[in-house]
Recover the amino acids of this structure.
């Protein structure tokens, strides 16, 4: 076991590169996504074992509906498989699952499984595992703005009372610390609409490795790189 200089409280990961991994291995794209869930399992387990407070994983964006129906179906199928095979162990490990994104925009079966997972693990006090499904960062901020506007109209708050903390409390991540470390695999250097508000002062890492190949060594390397970063938050 490595010891770390300083662990992030909140790690966010954009799990990218499944398509390229499949291509590289001359497999169908669905197989890339399937292999990606193996990496997912081990990174969740390790985060829990290391005592990381929160882990947020980008699994399906509001823009991913643009993909071919067959690929979307494969991803939807993997969501069911993943929860069916992992929920017992995650619950045993005291992991608290939260879905970031619009569950109600998903097919019924996926919706039911995700609500069940949240319900079953909601009181757990271990790793806070956020899985972003049908998630968009801008949509999240719009949703928060609407919630605040409704409260203002109802006379519960005054518009001038709205501050950063109040807005943050309307986000899916309401009670979690800001993202400390954002990792995007596969070498792409963009946020693709992930946790826009929460990443304001995150440290970014863009390892070249494709998501299905992101193993514990790669994760540890990222955590060490984070530990060696100097964070200033605008100060001296
Ligand atoms: C990321 O892998 C997983 C999802 C978007 C669901 P991609 O499928 O985007 O992989 P690349 O970018 O095509 O390699
Ligand atoms: C971001 O990856 C979404 C997920 C990893 C779930 P994409 O592969 O969809 O992002 P773009 O299209 O390259 O920006
Ligand atoms: Mg991609």
């Amino acid at each position: 076991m490595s010891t770390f200089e300083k662990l992030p409280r909140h790690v966010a990961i954009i799990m990218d590169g499944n398509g390229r991994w499949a291509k590289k291995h001359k497999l169908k794209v669905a197989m890339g996504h399937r292999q990606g869930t193996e990496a997912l399992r081990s990174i969740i387990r390790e985060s829990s074992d290391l005592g990381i407070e929160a882990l947020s994983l980008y699994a399906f964006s509001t823009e991913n509906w643009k993909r071919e129906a067959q690929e979307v179906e494969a991803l939807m199928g993997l969501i069911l498989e993943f929860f069916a095979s992992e929920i017992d162990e995650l619950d045993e490990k005291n992991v608290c699952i939260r879905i970031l994104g619009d569950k109600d925009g998903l097919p019924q079966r996926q919706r039911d499984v995700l609500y069940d997972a949240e319900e079953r693990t909601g009181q757990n006090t271990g790793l806070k595992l956020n899985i972003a499904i049908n998630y968009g960062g801008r949509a999240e901020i719009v949703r928060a703005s609407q919630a605040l506007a409704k409260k203002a109209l109802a006379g519960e708050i005054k518009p001038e009372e709205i501050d950063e903390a109040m807005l943050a409390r309307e986000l899916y991540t309401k009670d979690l610390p800001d993202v400390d470390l954002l990792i995007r695999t596969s070498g792409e250097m963009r946020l693709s609409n992930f946790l826009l508000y929460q990443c304001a002062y995150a440290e970014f890492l863009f390892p070249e490795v494709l998501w299905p190949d992101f193993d514990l060594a790669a994760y540890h390397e990222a955590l060490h790189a984070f530990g060696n970063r100097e964070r200033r938050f605008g100060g001296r």
